[in-house]
Amino acid sequence: MKKHTAGIHHITAIVGHPQENIDFYAGVLGLRLVKQTVNFDDPGTYHLYFGDKGGKPGTIITFFPWANAYQGRIGDGQVGVTTYVVPEGALPFWVNRLAKYSIPFQKAERFGEQVIQFDDPHGLHIELVARAKGGHNEWSFGEVTPEVAIKGFGGATLFSSHPEETAKVLTEVMGLEKLATEGDYTRFTSSAKIGNTVDLKTVAGQRGQMGVGTVHHIAWRAQDNTDHLEWQEYVMNHGQHVTEVKDRNYFNAIYFREPGEILFEIATDPPGFAHDETPETMGSQLMLPPQYEQHREQLERTLIPIKVRELD
User: Fold this and answer.
1) Please, are residues 148 and 136 in contact by the beta-carbon 8 Å criterion?
2) Between the CA of residue 19 and those of 35, 75, 102, 263, 308, what are the distances in Å?
3) Domain count across the chain
4) pLDDT tens by residue, 116-155
5) Mean pLDDT across the chain, nearest whole number?
6) Amino acid 276: pLDDT
7) Which of 272, 296, 247, 302 is nearest to 18 (CA)?
8) Residue 126's domain spans which residues?
9) Which end of the chain is more exposed for a tag (fewer CB within 10 A), N or C?
10) Residue 310 is assigned to a structural domain of this protein
């Protein structure tokens, strides 16, 4: 039986100073900080999660912020561009908002859609696209109201060292459908209403270098723990070297690096971000997994103080 992921679960990137990261994604883009925790493999570093009001799969971008770390280079073996989707008619609002905060941007068209392209403060490439699909994000912050707020991911653009092999993984392993090719890009789609569109650059270029301003991995959705274990076996049977299941507290995860050198994760939709906080208080305080709770005082002294600030 062929498996099909519903779409993107989350995208994780490396950035610089955590307060600059929060000011941009919460203060400018209006996303909700749904979880502040630590990197489970490097607890002296934050792991910050931003998404819609409920922190639903398909809306979550996560960050490892390392202040004063070296700058990376976006290139092959990475997600090159992260695309967010906004309601139809909302692009003029975002043009004005980017101008208000003196963020350079440009307009482009791809696969018949108008997109706004810009970079975050640490060099990540971002796009905004307007689509009808997907419910409104009910989170309001500053001047960003549900009528114009980012719904979640529109998708991502993948830069691959071996585009033909990556295309095979997208269709034959992840179960995406090839939609069309335009210029140097091929578009693939999945069944979800958001996080369902992936563009693959069909021409290889310079290999990326991991560091500030680059995406670490892209995660795809599994329905639950049973589906997740099926995915693990399925990916393995398709010749990919997949990891054991890792408990990330808010989802379970497995990882494999596809032939184009992009790190893929498959993550479970449950349990989500409200199981250790209430839906109303998500993101308001530092949450630690049980293995680090005994080190809370030390970690709170080590971590850079942060706060969500309304910039409008």
Assistant:
1) no
2) 14, 26, 18, 27, 8
3) 1
4) 999 999 999 999 999 999 999 999 999 999 999 999 999 9
5) 97
6) 94
7) 302
8) 8-302
9) N
10) no
